[in-house]
Amino acid sequence: MKKTLLLTLVMWLIGLGGTNAQCREYIEAIAESELEPYVLDGNFESPILKEGESVEFYRTFMSGLSYKIDVYGMDMFFKEITISEVEKKDNGKHVVKNVLFKNFGKDTEDQIVTTSAGESLPLNGLNFFEFTPDRTMELQIKVKIVPFEGGGGLKLEGCLGVLYGFSNN
After folding, report:
1. Which residues contact 28 (CB under 8 A, 6 or more apart)?
2. Which of 144, 158, 159, 162 is the most buried (most CB within 10 A)?
3. Which residue segments constitute the domains of the chain, with CATH numbers given?
4. Can you tell me the distance from the alpha carbon of 108 to that of 110, in angstroms, rounded to the nearest whole number?
5. How many CB atoms lie within 10 A of CB 160?
6. pLDDT over 50 at 96, yes or no
7. Three-class secondary structure of residue 10 per DSSP
8. Positive or negative: CA dihedral 85, 142, 167, 61
9. Mean pLDDT across the stretch 70-96?
């Protein structure tokens, strides 16, 4: 009985690692085309999230380059994305100084964004942010997966990718 339980636990843990690896491979495979004309900087995030969960990452961006942060995957869900400039305090905690991008809420409903490719897109629901910082800054990228209404209590999960691209232009 103990051997069966141990074997089941080991197989379950191997399966979890396989899921994360598959998610990472999938995001890495689509990164180049998703970021175009920006170039993947070699780093990206690929968490597996459930409805209602959120995740946040911190990255430093240098002046003199143009960047694209692209949140990809889990297309069946609305993703609330907030990108903020943060400052690290002496106690190690990050404090938000300025919100640079937010794709949800009443103030985004009628706003239009012009991309680097010249496309005009509605800000509400937009899954990427293009910017050129005038100074080096640390940003917090926060993503929340909004649950389906009337989902019957099921919590679906999926692979999310947060891609970082840059350009010298």
Report:
1. 44, 46
2. 162
3. 2-167 (2.60.120.380)
4. 6
5. 22
6. yes
7. helix
8. positive
9. 90
